[in-house]
Design brief:
Blueprint: E1 3-13, E2 21-27, E3 32-38, H1 40-50, H2 60-70, E4 73-84, E5 87-96, E6 99-106, H3 107-116, E7 120-124, H4 125-131, E8 133-134, H5 142-150, H6 157-163, H7 167-179, H8 183-197
Helix pairs in contact: 1-3, 2-3, 7-8
């Protein structure tokens, strides 16, 4: 299989589809996007690592990394190798003492673990051709692509309420959200802070 490198470009939630999130991967050096619907726990685990948040207790994927590191196991890459009836199949390529082993994993878990090891994500041309979305010359915004993955426009209630807070209030809310382990809210607050500081 000829591998095509991917990178994470977006992660969003749906207020109307309970527990549904869209993880959007982008073809490196290309204009195709691969949206993958994932569960809330995995979305939270990915968002925490992307936002460089430090949870009060290690999450399952952090525990996996700590366990693997303790026993000199390194995750080298994530490969999304199959798509069957809308379900993506992935594997972690791991190395220990020069021996390479491939471990089957759900795509969301594989990516949540992979980003903790700073490893690359790959897929095949077949998967990108069948499930990828091609952005045209007028390239829609990544946020529109994420919303399109759900077939809806996201509601902005939380975003609107965050816009009325000062930076100090946002920082306090961010700390409170992290203390309460509400990483979805923390991610949205962090986005609002970054938007104002850019």
């Amino acid at each position: 299989m000829e591998k095509i490198k991917l990178e994470i470009v977006g992660l969003s939630y749906s207020q109307t589809q309970s527990g549904a999130y869209a993880l959007v991967l982008s073809e490196v050096g290309g204009n195709r996007r691969l949206p993958i619907i994932i569960g809330g726990f995995e979305a939270q685990a990915i968002a925490i690592e992307l936002e460089k948040m430090v949870p009060t207790r290690p999450l399952t994927h952090d525990l996996f990394k700590n366990f693997a590191t303790t026993f000199n196991i390194e995750v080298k890459e994530v490969i999304i190798y199959n798509l069957d009836e809308g379900i993506f199949f992935s594997k972690l390529v791991c190395e220990q003492n020069g021996q390479v082993v491939e471990i089957d994993a759900r795509t969301s878990d594989a990516i949540a673990i992979g980003i903790r090891f700073n490893c690359d994500i790959y897929t095949s041309e077949d998967i990108l051709s069948s499930a990828g979305i091609l952005l045209d010359e007028s390239a829609m915004e990544e946020e529109d692509l994420i919303n399109e993955s759900f077939g809806e426009e996201e509601e902005a209630e939380t975003g609107s309420s965050l816009e009325t807070l000062t930076i100090d209030q946002l920082e306090a809310e961010l700390n409170q959200a992290i203390d309460n382990e509400d990483y979805e809210l923390a991610s949205r607050i962090r986005d609002e802070i970054n938007k104002r500081q850019s």
